[in-house]
Design goal:
By secondary structure, this protein is an alpha+beta fold. Helices cover 28% and strands 25% of the residues. Mean pLDDT is 96; it is low at 1-5.
Length: 750
């Protein structure tokens, strides 16, 4: 499949108004909290005040007697999932762990862990009932830092978790859930060939995705046994599968209706409220709505992991990298699972190292269960690798951009975890940096510095379905199953329009419920515009095939004689437009419905480079971002405004990660800043306008060259910012965030 060149496109690369724009700006869009029903009950969840404790008993009798209370549930109301493993859209999950995260069974493993739930006439009555539930805890010692949790004498979270080290299980239970090892070449030889070797250690804190809309779910378990769920989610089919498994009913009995979503960034894939609302609904006999408060979001859902990363790089005097070694440990949080795999894949992904080894560990500790956050795992390791590389450039007196260009991966380069790159845009991104106004602009003044960092996210394919109905007025209704977070309805509509020769406005995209469209994996992994777009393109080709057959009936000829150019069908001087043929479809044959399912098993490989200019106040340690540019290979920018928005949004989140954002935990495992007032995210006053440069190196696995853009932009910012801080102050910040107190202390020590 060969991508077309940009000048062949009529729709792609333009900037039509997004299809959901009017509803969003007028307030008519229906989000999860907007769902209302007659006889609706309101639910609340009782959460553990302890980070690690054994549940000795739960007494709900007093809560059940409160007037207006319809139902009270605990983990005992759920069927025992045992240790069944199910593939729920982003890899295999042990259902006992998933279920125990939804509602604690036997032990609580983090402050905020759900223990019981109530459905009542109002949230106030539900809260009154929660206060009457008596839980007898045996408090246990918590362990919060990843290296502490790896120690032999660390408090043990699970008796049934054994270290999986490359397929072999440990003999005794451990907090270390997984160990991965990758190697390439001869690492000892690689370091022996080096003229300079630098090894450094880095720490990062837990960081939340920071979506504006809290988690919300409404469930209606009908008398006929059918369960319907309205929720804000990144994957309606994943919610269907997870909920069906946890409440113990067939998949066909569950229908999920995805609402508009106020942000997710990876944090709205796992279920938290949906199974609880379902059982409350069954027990109460009425629909039940659960909406988290902001402290519940912080304490009861999954942030990105805290991490410890050790990176060692060797290079020759001319800057040629000879070897790389990485040791990576990530928080898994309370239950197994986490992004250690992607972390190991991405740590050296931008550079062509002849010799490398990577060891990675997922480690359970008494924090909320880790979830994805935009390129999960890649930001942590890029922060480490890019800083060490920059230090090498300084020691060898080499230009940091030239050093990256000299070692950049290209087509044919092999990553340490095995894959060989096809056509990619890493070099082109760095060349765009070299030619950019920002990189060539002077930066003057004391305590000012410029940083450059490179980042990578592999982007995934997975499974998608699409259906397109041709209407007799010549428009097309597109039905797809990818929940829309960043404008994907329009990017998909534009791909269908380009395929059919129509305008974007003539396509009417809809995100359907799980009964109305074929199976579609989560909105994540930068996969939607690529994979669901691929399904949409194939559905368009199916439409063209059917319309060619109808034109053949009209002209009494073989369908192969019909030529298609844009939206025109022609043969021997006769021609008919898409709209004219659509109007005749019911007279010429059957209604025209295009269908497609795809499961591309490939990475689309997104590379990005960021330039950051900062100024540091030595009196306070405050860092001000003066100028920022994000450069990224999009493959093909379907809607350039959306691509720019993704690049800007990821950069701002990465700036927050670099400078301020972190979970503060007390010694007892309680989060001290569980609100947007205390959890310091960037505002418009903290960042400049993010400049963007889009590079287009077409992906050969997509007809329009799409790569996916949503995740790469969060990868370079912490590295670019901390390198800029070093160039401003001479201090390398090897722990994130580089907040004013931490940076001020480092400046005093220096």
């Amino acid at each position: 499949m060969k991508a077309a060149t940009s000048d062949e496109y009529k729709i792609l690369g333009t900037r039509p108004i997004r299809h959901d724009g009017a509803d969003k700006v007028t307030g008519k869009a229906k989000y999860g909290a907007d769902v209302q029903f007659a006889n609706l009950a309101h639910g609340k969840i009782l959460r553990s005040p302890h980070a690690h404790a054994r549940i000795k008993s739960i007494d709900t009798s007093a809560a059940e007697k409160v007037p207006g209370v319809f139902a009270v549930i605990t983990a005992n109301d759920f069927p025992d999932p045992q240790d069944k493993i199910a593939d729920l859209g982003e890899g295999p999950v042990t259902l006992s762990h998933l279920g125990s995260n939804v509602m604690a069974r036997g032990k609580v493993l983090y402050k905020g862990h759900a223990v019981a739930a109530v459905a009542a006439t109002s949230t106030h009555v539900a809260e009154q009932a929660l206060n009457l539930i008596q839980v007898d805890y045996e408090i246990l010692e918590p362990v919060l830092w990843v290296l502490d949790a790896m120690a032999e004498d660390a408090p043990l979270l699970h008796e049934n978790v054994f270290t999986d080290s490359m397929g072999e299980a440990s003999e005794k239970p451990s907090n270390i859930e997984k160990h991965l090892h990758f190697e390439k070449g001869d690492i000892e030889q690689g370091f022996a060939e080096a003229d300079i070797v630098i090894e450094r250690e880095f720490k990062t804190a837990s960081v939340h995705q920071g979506y504006i809309e809290p988690h919300v779910a409404t469930a209606d378990w009908n008398e006929d046994g059918q369960l319907r769920i309205w929720t804000s989610t990144q994957g309606s089919f994943t919610v269907r599968h997870q909920t069906a498994e946890l409440v113990g009913i067939p998949l066909s009995r569950v229908t999920v209706y995805p609402c508009e979503i106020g942000g997710g960034f990876g944090g709205k894939i796992a279920v938290y409220l949906q199974p609880v609302a379902a059982l409350l609904s069954r027990k109460s006999g009425r629909p039940v709505k659960l909406v988290m408060q902001r402290d519940e979001v912080f304490e009861g859902t999954g942030p990105t992991p805290g991490s410890f990363v050790r990176v060692k790089l060797g290079a020759k005097n001319d800057g040629t990298l000879t070897a790389g070694k990485a040791w990576i440990a990530f928080d898994a949080g309370a239950f197994p699972g986490g992004p250690i795999g992607p972390g190991c894949m991405c740590v050296f992904s931008c550079y062509d190292l002849p010799h490398a080894t990577v060891d990675g560990y997922n480690v359970c500790n008494n924090k909320p269960k880790t979830q994805a956050y935009r390129a999960p795992g890649s930001t942590h390791v890029a922060y480490a690798t890019e800083n060490v590389l920059d230090e090498i450039a300084g020691e060898l007196d080499l230009d940091p951009l030239d050093l990256r260009l000299k070692n950049a991966v290209k087509e044919g380069s092999r990553r340490v975890d095995g894959p060989v790159y096809p056509e990619i845009g890493c070099v082109e991104v760095l060349e765009a940096v070299k030619n950019s106004e920002h990189w060539n602009a002077p930066l003057e003044g004391p305590y000012r510095g410029r940083g450059l960092a490179l980042g990578f996210w592999f982007n995934c394919g997975l499974k998608s379905s699409a259906t397109a109905n041709v209407n007799t007025d010549g428009t097309v209704t597109l039905i797809e199953g990818s929940t829309d977070i960043g404008g994907s309805r329009t990017s998909l509509a534009m791909q269908l329009a380009e395929t059919l020769g129509l305008t974007a406005e003539e396509i009417h995209p809809q995100v359907a419920d799980t009964d109305s469209v074929g199976y579609t994996d989560v909105t994540g992994g930068s996969r939607v515009t690529f994979a669901t777009g691929l399904a949409v393109c194939k559905a368009g080709e199916d439409i063209q095939k059917q319309m060619r057959q109808q034109a053949a009936v009209l002209w009494d000829c073989d369908a192969n004689e019909i030529e298609i150019s844009g939206s025109t069908f022609s043969r021997n001087g006769n021609s008919i437009s898409f709209q004219e043929l659509a109007a005749k479809q019911l007279q010429l044959g059957e209604p025209i419905v295009g269908r497609a399912t795809v499961a591309p098993d490939c990475s689309t490989n997104g590379f990005g480079a960021h330039i950051a200019d900062v100024e540091v106040d030595p009196e306070t340690g405050k860092t001000t971002v003066l100028r920022y540019t994000a450069i990224q290979d999009a493959g093909k920018a379907i809607h350039p405004s959306y691509v720019e928005g993704q690049m800007q949004g990821g950069a701002v989140q990465g700036i927050g990660w670099a400078l301020n954002e972190e979970y503060f935990f007390g010694d007892a495992g309680d989060m001290k800043n569980a609100s947007f007032l205390d959890y310091r995210m960037p505002t418009c006053l903290d960042v400049p306008m993010i400049e963007t440069i889009i590079v287009e190196v077409p992906n050969p696995d997509h007809p329009f060259g799409v790569r996916g853009v949503g995740e790469t932009p969060i990868v370079p910012p912490p590295a670019a910012i901390t390198i800029a801080i070093h160039n401003a102050t001479g201090v390398y910040m090897r722990e994130l965030p580089a907040s004013p107190p931490r940076l001020w202390k480092a400046l005093q020590e220096a």
